[in-house]
Amino acid sequence: MPSDLLSTQVYSRSDLRASGFTTWRIERDVAAGHLIRLRRDRYVVSSHPDIDRAVRIGARLSCVTLLALWGAFVFDSSVLHLQVERRASRLRAADDRGARWVRSATAHRKVALHWVNLRHVAPNRHTVAILDALRCAVRCQTPPLAVATVDSVLHVGLATMAEVREVFASLPGRYAAVLAVVDARSESGTESLVRLMLRQIGATYELQVKVRGVGRVDFIIDGWLIVECDSKAHHQGWEKQQEDRRRDIAAARQGYTTIRPLAEDILYRPDEVRAALREILACRL
To answer: Which of 94, 156, 158, 251 is the most exposed place for a label (fewest CB within 10 A)?
Structure first.
């Protein structure tokens, strides 16, 4: 678990009393700033912006928000996704424990509440279980993005394939198409999205292939076209660019052509990338 989530613990008054706190000491520590009262009967020692807002509302981190904090790929983590029990009441404002939750308030437009009961025991008071978060994320995203997220969850080891199948067994039948194309070998969300593009255009491809003198490449398509899904995080700096160019030359000496579509184009201009792949493959034919 991410260290900031692991180190954060949300306490109730009974938790504190069981640890030896008196009512006087709780109030003293709150006044001194040693304890932070997020809402009635909920306290933390250290602040975390997402956890604070979730607990203050009366919710738990879930969906793409929680998966992103765990290191899985999600397309958009700018909105705070929270789980609320179906019959929950007395929700408070995200940034003011003294104000009530108002669905139409401008301050809440960056918060998405998922009114759903949990299927798994929550590990703590501020997050849902990974499988509950994954179930929500599959329904909350488009099918291609859902595939990329599930691939990532499997690749980083947040869930097993058996657990993923369990999640999909509880979803409506239309989501079976997402499960059918999941592949844990994809090492990034952009690789997952390119893989789906290749399926759409009917290309024959191999994934994560070792090429002599080059190393492992993301895709080899139709036996001659190498596609590397570069991201700024892993291909930044001149030294890394030098390494990539030497790899491309080594591949070209063996008859391969290498292309490197940008991550931002794969994510935000998928139609253009798909069309480019189709046209490049057609040129060789």
So the answer is: 156
- Quote the pLDDT of residue 176: 96
Token duo for residue 75 = 């397309």
**Distinct helix (H) and strand (E) counts, the chain:** 13, 12
Q: Per the structure block, which two tokens stand in for 15?
A: 């938790």
Integer Cα distance of 186 and 18 in angstroms: 47
Provide the pLDDT for residue 54: 92
pLDDT of 2 reads 65
Domain extents in the chain: 3-137, 189-284
Name the pairing type of β-strands 36-39 and 60-61. Answer: unpaired
pLDDT tens for each residue of 35-48:
989 888 889 988 88
Looking up tokens 């490449």, which residue turns up? 217
> Based on the number of CB atoms within 10 Å of its own CB, is 137 exposed (0-12), middle (13-18) or buried (19 or more)?
buried
Task: Fold for 189-284, please state it.
Answer: Endonuclease; Chain A (3.40.960)
* pLDDT per position as a tens digit, 119-169: 999 998 899 999 999 999 999 999 999 999 999 999 999 999 999 999 999
Tokens representing residue 69 in the block: 């904090």
Q: Among candidates 190, 194, 218, which has minimal Cα distance to 277?
A: 194
92 Rama sector, left if φ>0, alpha if ψ -120 to 50, beta otherwise:
beta
Look over the chain and give the mean of its residue pLDDT values, rounded to a whole number.
90
Calpha distance 143→140 (Å, rounded)? 9
CB count within 10 Å of CB 242 equals: 10
CA distance 50 to 82: 10
